[in-house]
Amino acid sequence: MRTDRVVQQLAALIAVAMITACRPDAPVGVNGADLEAAAAKGTPGGPGGGGGGEDGGYGNNLSYPVIFAEGRGLAGASVAGDGPTRYANTGLRPIATDSAALAELAGLDSLPFWYSGNTSEAYTTGVNVFWQKTANVWQAQWEARSGDGNTPVIVDWGDNLRSVKYSTTSVVRVEHVMNANDGNTLLGFPMDVTVNPSSPTEKQGIYDDGNETSTSAFTPTVFSDRARLTIQKLSAKGGTVTYTYFDKAVHQSYGVDGPGGYAAEINVGGKLVYGYVLDFKKVVMPAGVAKDGWWRITFSMDAASGATFAGLSVGDEPFAMIDGNSSTAEIEIGTMRGGGGRKP
Predict the structure, then answer these.
(1) In 201-268, which ranges are continuous DSSP H helix?
(2) How many folded domains does the chain comprise?
(3) Which DSSP category does 52 fall into?
(4) 69 burial level (CB within 10 Å; 0-12, 13-18, 19+)
(5) Contact at 8 Å (CB) between 274 and 229?
(6) What values do phi and psi take at 216, rounded to 5?
(7) pLDDT at 227 over 60
(8) What pLDDT score was predicted for residue 335?
(9) Does a cis peptide bond (omega within 30 degrees of 0) precede residue 94?
(10) Cα 87–chain centre separation
(11) Contact between 40 and 89 (Cβ < 8 Å)
(12) What does the alpha-carbon distance between residue 204 and residue 92 come to, in Å, rounded to a whole number?
């Protein structure tokens, strides 16, 4: 039972306390050959994608379900239809280098998937864990959809954007999650253990307690390769745009690695998120435009998206908005020379 896991997690935390007190222009088309050709160039840009980590090692597994709103995986390949070959096109683990797990999933042709070769590691006395970013492989359910505007979503902005006042030397992690808002649920694997939360060394995993293959119903996240990120400098808070630093959609970023591209990835918790690292130290401004001041970050959908914005996540309304046609959300970040810290 999952309640048993809660008890075990508390026991493990107590034990730990006692012991020690992640630019080529891509296609403008929206289907078929254009996207498949771009996908062949490589996986989506950005750190920590679904198939591999920043260090070239194992990537994170999908623990929470996802909807592919246009029937295309993380690198643009089709995941629509039936048959086991679609699993290789998702961009999710198991990927080609997880060959035994991928063959097992293709043979089973069923989700959720738990690889029979998974092995746990000792965590605390009497407690073992199946960790993310290891040879272990699992995959939550996912669904492929088609048609414009087939899935209403709630847009969730990263928590750090709500509370931190950044400087001109800050590194800003811009994250968005789209949660389906149509009442449907899919099955996934609850994560039981978190070590060093919200840090570069964060680890998450699932207890080896006989219930590791148990699943729960979750509201799916949504992936659309029509998602676009735009970052602009403003004349003042709520003012006019004086410089557009970044403006790219996921479908334009296939084969682009690093800050030149925009992508979705699977985070350490096993959830699909859109991510971009905005390193202000590396931002070169045009003559006459100061780096410090107000910036606008816009998360929007290009034409022919399967996702439509239905609202903002609870807590996001004070600093973000959705425009009249339900396609854009905005947030302004103030920067100052030096300094930084929490917003008042």
Answers:
(1) none
(2) 1
(3) B
(4) buried
(5) yes
(6) -135, 160
(7) yes
(8) 64
(9) yes
(10) 19
(11) no
(12) 17
Question: Which residues does 315 contact at the CB level (< 8 Å), separation at least 6?
Answer: 162
The residues near 82 (Cβ < 8 Å, ≥ 6 apart) are none
The pair of structure tokens assigned to 191 is 């994560």
Say what the pTM is. 0.83
Nearest to 278 by CA among 95, 38, 47, 111: 47
d(CA 17, CA 322): 44
Task: Dig out the tokens for 211 from the structure.
Answer: 């219930």
| Residue 254 DSSP class | B
- Reading the block at residue 203, the tokens are 């680890």
Q: From CA 85, how far away is CA 191, in angstroms rounded? A: 28
Q: CA 100 to CA 74: how far, in whole Å?
A: 21
Domain that holds residue 138: 2-342
Contact between residue 59 and residue 137 where contact means Cβ atoms under 8 Å apart = no
Closest CA to 307 of 221, 184, 230: 221
CA distance 7 to 12: 9
Q: Which residues pair with 266 in a beta bridge?
A: 272
CB neighbour class for 88 (10 Å; exposed up to 12, middle 13-18, buried from 19): middle
129: tokens are 């864990």
Q: Which residue has tokens 């035994």? A: 100
Whose tokens are 């998206």? That residue is: 305
- Phi/psi for 290 (5° steps) reads -75, 145
pLDDT digits (tens, 9 = 90+) for 71-105: 999 999 999 998 888 999 999 999 999 999 999 99
**Cα 253 from Cα 227, distance rounded (Å):** 11
Q: Tens of pLDDT along 135-180?
A: 999 999 999 999 999 999 999 998 888 777 788 889 999 999 999 9
Residue identified by tokens 């020379």 is: 337
**Mean per-residue pLDDT for 253-280?**
92
CA distance 155 to 331: 12
Query: Maximum CA pair distance of the chain?
Result: 63
| Residue the block writes with tokens 């198939």 | 51
Residues 103 and 97 sit within 8 Å (Cβ to Cβ): no
